[in-house]
Amino acid sequence: MLTEPLPPDDALAALKALIEYLAGTPTALQILWFGLIAVLWTGYLVLEGFDFGVGMLFPILSKNDRERRAMLTTIGPLWDGNEVWVLTAGGATFAAFPEWYATLFSAAYLPLFLILLGLIVRNVGFEYRGKVDSKRWRSGWDWAITLGSWVPSVLWGVAFGNLVAGVPARVDPLQLGPTKILYGGNFFDLVKNPFCLLGGVVTALLFLAHGAIFTSMKTTGELEARAKALAPKLMVAATAAAAVWAVWMQLAYSNNAWTWGAVAIAAIALILACWFTFVGREGFAFASTTVGLGSAVALIFGSLYPNVINASKVTLVGDALADIPGLGLVDGADITPVVTDVGTLQELGMEVERAITGLPIVAASSSDLTLKLMTIVACILVPVVLAYQAWNIWIFRKRISADRIPAESGLAP
Amino acid sequence: MGALDLARWQFGITTVYHFIFVPLTIGLSPLVALLQTFWVKTGKDEWYRLTRFFGKLLLINFALGIVTGIVQEFQFGMNWSEYSRYVGDIFGAPLAMEALAAFFIESTFLGIWIFGWGRLSKGVHLATIWLVAFAVNLSAFFILAANSFMQYPVGAKLSDSAGNLLTPRADMASLGDMLFSKLSLSTFWHTISTSFLVAGTFMAGICVWWIVKSVRKGNEDLARNVYRRGAVVGTVTIIVAGISLILSGHNQAVITTEIQPTKMAAAEALCATPEPGQGAAFTVAPMGKCVDGEFEGAQIIPIKGLLSFLATGDSAGEVKGMADLQAEFDEVFAPIYGEGLDYNPPVMVTAWSFRLMIGLGIFSAVLAIWALIALRGGRVSGSGGLKTWALVTLPMPFLASAFGWIFTEIGRQPWIVYPIYQAGAPSPDIALRTAAGVSPDSVVNAGSVAITLVVFTLIYLILAVFWFKLMVRYTGRGVDESESIPTKDDDNDDSKPLSFAY
Fold first, then answer.
1. Among chain B residues, CA nearest to A392
2. Is B289 contained in some domain?
3. Do the domain assignments include residue B254?
4. Under a CB-based contact definition with an 8 Å cutoff, are residues B201 and B238 in contact?
């Protein structure tokens, strides 16, 4: 039952209490779960990354329908299991950091909607494309698969960029607590920052390169040759874009200096990946892009820590704040945004070390009991999942040759 | 329409749409696994043909169930962020566990099953479809436990407000109490029974239709050797699931009367509590509304005492009417929300969805009895009436389960988390009104919800058309008798085409 919080007598004291609460140190369990969510995202980007890449590339790399089918068949047994990583990341965020889940999903409403649309038409496309033997039917689903791979590939990068670059936030210190750090922007706020747009370019290029390398590992003949020829070009472009993006993030937005380490590992991994694609060692190249994607996630999560979402601007709202001299809040609709930086707050007579910089782990997290139980569940199940997904990859390790694609394809129209 | 109404429409449309595909997936996966088991055990080609035939239909269906499930999960954060904040500590756990324990298995092994025909040994390949069947049912358990928490929030406690610094929320007190609440277990039983009824009807309906069609075309062998086997599996499934459905449905009614009295009162349009010892009547067709504790309108065919019996197991048992319940809820919640809130759900929607849920099940029962008679002792039938009935029955259990969810979800309004009701009073501890659960207008405005509602609905409609067309075409194609049976390592032989490719 939600009860209205009693307004504290002193609004300043309330604000100070909130800031102190938000600046608290996360517990070990909370940090563990922050890390585990990073692991789930890494699993998602590495695995779905290659099937997104194949989905984006298959109309370009193939010359005929058999080759298109061969490319889709390389990811056929894998894409569905790959995609569950994002559902698990979503579910784990909901369970371990409900505030994060609620704030992020409602703030990134329209981008998430577009991602969902992409995933829907793409998944149905995989299953339905070969069900009717008609050129129109197949080319329609080809579009669905291609667009459905491009849109999430770009938007995931944009979304991650926003987490780190920060979103406008609104805080009502009189209805205290995490529920009241709300997203205060709109769709265009999410896409207008060039850094975030670059993030979309980076994820798309990385997935394209990752997918081209995967294709060169899993196909034969001309298809393999074309993928091998394209991979180094994509890899160089991805590395260049990722380098600019990573350094930009580190300099402009990272909350921590140690994420330079992640930047360095990503740089080494991606440069190695370029080299391996040039010399035709696709297995090593794939391992390198995997490390590159993992360090990109480490950079993103490390740059956020101790927040789960950074705030670009914090607006204090709430009628009672109008009583605080200097905060500049005006009654009713006309509320002046106030950035709660340390200087402004100290001018108001608050001895604070740290301003509100975003939604922190401490305020986003579930209770200790929930985290403990979920830790047990995750420790048992994640290794099992990894084992059978590895087995899945092992069963279908053989290269797919376009010559071996069966002639029949679905019912006559 | 405001963001709240739009978000509710979106949730309703997505849920009903999702649950067209899901019960068939839940029920048909084990049935296909069973058909494949018969093939592996007996080595008879007929079972292989049936496995492939229903396997294809299962896959056409699976795809849509999965994609709408993703929307279901993301929707909580997108449209219902305040709800997610309030319950996330306890409600997120079953969703995360579902993904980790069930959804991974189902997605991974489904991929292995589809592409594994020419690569795995018969036994291992059979194990993959059984794992899929197990996982979809486990999935259902976690999702239904989550839904049951919204209906009956046990296992949670109100969080400490930390000296008024934090807004209290529903924190986990006991994961076990939540996962295995009496409602959760009962709902699981009921929903799985439904799913098997849907899948049994699907299999029996299609096979019976094909039997009649084959007999009339003079291909009695095909009817007897192949489709009759499927029809028997389907019919037996209908009978077992049907009995289970009646028992679990009664159990649901008794539990619901106890923990969600407003839902059952609305289901029966019971405006006032009957006099003690009188028992409440079940009205076959109530048409009207409650005005000041009296029913205004027509109550067609009332059956005395039947409601009391259904809801309490005793024909004179007390079932509370809506006027008394309103007073009880007002007493507890008026000090918090103020006067004038209606604590009863919309009566006609609740009452009629309840009736349609039950009534549409009769089609399957008739099909099962008719099929039993027509197919007894190795017979096949060329009856046009049976063929028509089989076809007419096919959509009915789908509709019945959709109405079941409409009844469950509309019937708990105005709550998104229904308060725990015991000893004649709702508890104000853990509860959330639907209106308080929606994402704040400043974050997600009505325009955004309207856009996603319209586009999702259009996409759903388009995909439903494709689904329907493919289902009809692949059903009309029948079993593929020309198909060669792949064996292990076929796909490692570079001279042969792959057994399956996209």
1. B112
2. no
3. yes
4. yes
